[in-house]
Input
Amino acid sequence: MNFVDYLLENAGDPAKECILSRDGTLTYGDLIDRINRLSAFLLETIGAGNECLLLSENNPFFIIAYLGIIKSGNTALLVETRITDSQLAVIYEQCAIRASFVQEKYRKKIGPVDCIYSEDLLDEIPRTERVSSTQVSEDDVAVVIFTSGSTGTKKGVMQTHKNLCSNTQSIIEYLGLTPNDRICATLPLFYCYGASLLHTHLRIGGSFFLSNNIFLGGIIRDINTYHCTGFAGVPSTYQILVNKTPFLKEQLPSLRYLQQAGGQLPNRYIRMISEAFPEKLFFVMYGATEATARLSYLPPDKVLTKLGSIGRGIPGVVLEVISESGSKVKPGEIGEITAAGDNIMKGYYNDPAGTAEVIKNGKLFTGDLATVDDEGYIFIHGRAKNIIKSGGYRISPNEIEEFIGAIDGIDGCVVFGLPDDTMGESIIAVVQQSGSLSETTLRESVFNRCRQYFPSYKVPSRVFTLKEFPLNASDKVDKQALSILIQENLRNNPKAGQ
Amino acid sequence: MTSFDENTIRNIFCEVLGLPPQDITDSLAYNSCEQWDSLKHLQIIAMFEERFGIEIEMDDIIAMETFGRVKEILHKYLS
Output
């Protein structure tokens, strides 16, 4: 079944509010009409089975284009709005993109290519009687999400119609969603977690509030004004709300539940949130783009007794922690989290070798290291894959290390993340100095070059200089020792490295 | 607390958004400026608070949607 048909199967009353924002409301009838028109337009202009790029912030344009592309039997390629021009150029080179849906604001990021459409297209397409839904095979790719891989180049995660239907159903089940639910959505829709919010609320016949605020604190007003029943965030979302807004003192009477995924929220925040809202359900969850979105959840009544756990597999997913020998770990033993189920991606776009590294015998190897307690609850201890999660972004240290290491006067560079109250993790760069530049000049030069080259979320927040790096037994830089050294330094001088 | 200084405010915008001073006009808006996103906004606010020695209230942080409004609001804190 086409994923979009599956999503809209339960849309009952066409007059029911579906997508809300401060700029207006789309009812289910409006949304279905818009999707049908776009789908028919695409079938007439490019046909089915092609790739369409989508680059937009969260707005009705994104939602209509996304669903219209998939309904027409084409594949939606999702990229983040902060993608650099060079990364975007690589995607255009590697993929056979037949049409590009680009929010007007980002249009100048796209070079001279055919078939670029912006918001105004949606008003120009005539109404259609034909309900154009393309029959697809369940293993056809509906969406490719380009996400940061550990090498710094973008990896395209291919999600099939079956993957998306299966994960949507599981999430609805464990969250207990009903047609009365309305999510306050701030997470980007080009990110699998954000997209899962849209999918689940359409399928259940609920509603979706697009909360686009200049500052996250605006969600407090939005939840109250638009009577939202759910809120979703990544660690930095909750850390900003707790540290920079009166969130924990609010009543939020319409809110039934909160959900958190996208990295490990430090336990003290989990405790603060569940204690501030004892009447509301707080779901701590875990997932991966390679698993469509969701893999596990901790039942809300276990949030404090199993503090820090990611819970157990969601319905339809077999989640196991496997030792190096391939057997399930004993309680307390560390192993790698693996997952099997209909939500596991088809593979990485145009990268069979990369796919074979993470999917073995039908199981996804997540790269997350964990233990299991005697009741089967999973606790994450670190990542085998070396990724920094900052401000909701997955950042590869390798790319930053390579760039800084190539600056004159620098011999080597090591980049890692340290826990940060606002960003989840902050990026720390330690450089090995070769020339005679002063520490301050060198640090300024690293900051300036990084600001020119990287989007802001990849710029290190602190830069330290060292004459020699600590090495481990195999003569590789000992990142753990380095991280301890820097943390000691920061305890003595909290402003160091800035 | 430091006194109101438009140049300091403009320089903070230039530094965080990576734009030349002539682009920072009163009508520069969060909605249409590609560089000005919510993470950068947080950075800008943190720099105002540090440079001017003030603490900006949440409703004001939300209302700072154009450079012109930013100046008006900071005036309130710095006069």
Observations:
- The mean pLDDT of chain B is 90.
- Chain B has four helices and no strands.
- The two ends of chain B are 10 Å apart (CA to CA).
